[in-house]
Amino acid sequence: MNHQHYYVPEQSHWPIVAAFALFFLAAGTAHTIIHGQPLLLIIGLGAIAYLFVGWFGEVIRENQAGLLDNDQVDRSFRLGMGWFIFSEVMFFAAFFGALFYIRHFSVPWLAGEGAKGISHMLWPAFEASWPVMSPPDSARFPGPEETVDPWHLPFINTLLLVSSSITLTIAHHALKKGHRAVVIAWMFVTVALGVSFLVVQGYEYHEAYTQMGLTLHAGVYGATFFILTGFHGMHVTLGTIILIVMLSRILRGHFSARRHFGFEASAWYWHFVDVVWLGLFIFVYVL
């Protein structure tokens, strides 16, 4: 009789920790926004950090010990990472969809265009344009004084991210060939490019708030700008931390030319972040 063998994970407390960590993170975020008290948020962030270090550390130790080193587990990791990236695609698709709806439907309707033109009765003097420099309710939400020049800091950041994808790909190919010194050198460059991106974006945000009047309260343009670029910046931050972890593992002698899915998964994620930025650069900054 043929027997089909399936991998059944051992009992673990980490899913329970994850549930509590996500609860405190969500509740803490809401409590901070509404009441301005970040205690629950700090607890949630600390629990998330503990979860990542503990759970991923356990998986790494199992991998280094040669446990569960088979094609079935490798395939499950690949499917899991693939679905995770797909969920991230849908996450950003929702925000890009909101931007498209606002630009091509809501703003023209408020100016009296289309089937919903009756909305123009609310603010008769409002004229449709993008970006919206003079929002309909300017008394409460004054528009920005100016917009970000796409060919200055955003273009520099585009070059940084595209370059980082190239250097990461070079490191990946070197790992496949077993050239560990080459991998380490190019990973240092990749991490430096990721950190440089975050520094430039931080300077851009400071410039937007202090010199351009472009804030989260600067009407719908300010809100969509910071939601899209802010969430992307959060993903770049997470991706940079992941790359630093991968670099530290390589320095410790982890991974081989045949088995290195942890590194490969981090590369998938970084390339995804790069592609999202290209979309942001075109649809948020240029068009």
Automatic annotation (TrEMBL):
Predominant place of localization: membrane
InterPro entries, per the entry: Cyt_c/ubiquinol_Oxase_su3, Cyt_c_oxase_su3_dom, Cyt_c_oxidase-like_su3, Cyt_c_oxidase_su3-like_sf, Cyt_c_oxidase_su3_a-hlx
Entry coiled-coil feature ranges: none
EC numbers: 7.1.1.9
Pfam family, one: COX3
Positions of the Heme-copper oxidase subunit III family profile domain: 2-287
Localization terms from the record: Cell membrane; Membrane
Enzyme type, top EC level: translocase
Transmembrane region(s): 12-34, 40-60, 81-102, 151-171, 183-203, 223-247, 268-286
Membrane disposition: Multi-pass membrane protein
Keywords recorded for this protein, A-Z: Membrane, Translocase, Transmembrane, Transmembrane helix
Keyword Membrane: yes
Similarity comment text for this entry: Belongs to the cytochrome c oxidase subunit 3 family.
The protein's name in its UniProt record: cytochrome-c oxidase
